[in-house]
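INFO  loader      accepted 1 record
INFO  loader      residues=322
INFO  predictor   begin
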Amino acid sequence: MSNAAGTVAIIGAGMAGLACATRLGHAGLAVQLSDKGRGPGGRMSTRRLETPLGQASFDHGAQYFTARGASFTAQVEQWVQQGMAAPWPAAGDGAFVGVPGMNAPVKALAADQSVAWQFRIEALLADEAGWRLIGPAGPTQAFSAVVVALPAEQAAELLADAHADMAAKAAGSSTQPCWTVMAAFAERLPFEADTLRDLGPLGWAARNVSKPGRAGPETWVIQGSPDWSREHLEASGDEVSAFLLAALAEAMGGPLPAPLALEAHRWRYARSASGTDGALWTSGARIGCCGDWLNGPRVEGAWDSGVSLADRIIADRQRLGL
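INFO  predictor   done
INFO  writer      dumping tokens
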């Protein structure tokens, strides 16, 4: 990482972390993000699988997003104008998706930031110089402030020795898991609707190729309900794929053809609790938290949490020397 003096470190480059970084950057503050992932997306990731009919694309995390408040509505309108998002009526009025994949808006936000990918933070250390991030190679240089933009369970673990009150708040928030199956087929399945939802163990299923900007073979994303996913959290991917494909076949009223490609993904932290804090910030300790677990389990909740935390940091910038 580059010289960290006068810089805010943000751990987690998902929607909340990137929203916080974007707002801070617009105010002229220096930001450095880190993320353990290989690239932008997080729970708005897009997965691609090779098939005999070409590459198949799957939005295997968040399926769509809505915009209700002024801040996020303005951002979504900008994404639509730039061709990075579009309405998807199959999910209901006011539903949008990223184009050509759900990760498009996150990729665009990350492209304007300094992000250290595949950088796992194991601990936080405060000293007289500021906050240091402890990774496999040891501590970084000191940052003037630090933001933890991670799912609640991961935030609780990282904050345990850094800020007990924030760690306790995060530990008290639970995130629902979700098993997701991605299946590609040689031809369109004989089912008129592009989505199904809330059918026992089948929490959601969608014809992914029906979303704007998608191409390639027939693709379906099949997600287990929170209760079913929790009950089968340690099942194998093959077991989960077989069960959820059978559940989809039952919902469609007949057997399904053999898939061209099939893969399961386990989201341990999929849907956050409905927190009401918005964001957490301790001015004296120069540490904060943001994420959908503090503001409601929607993409907009993550965005608003990141913006809210950034505004608190900006209000403190003179005292922080930023």
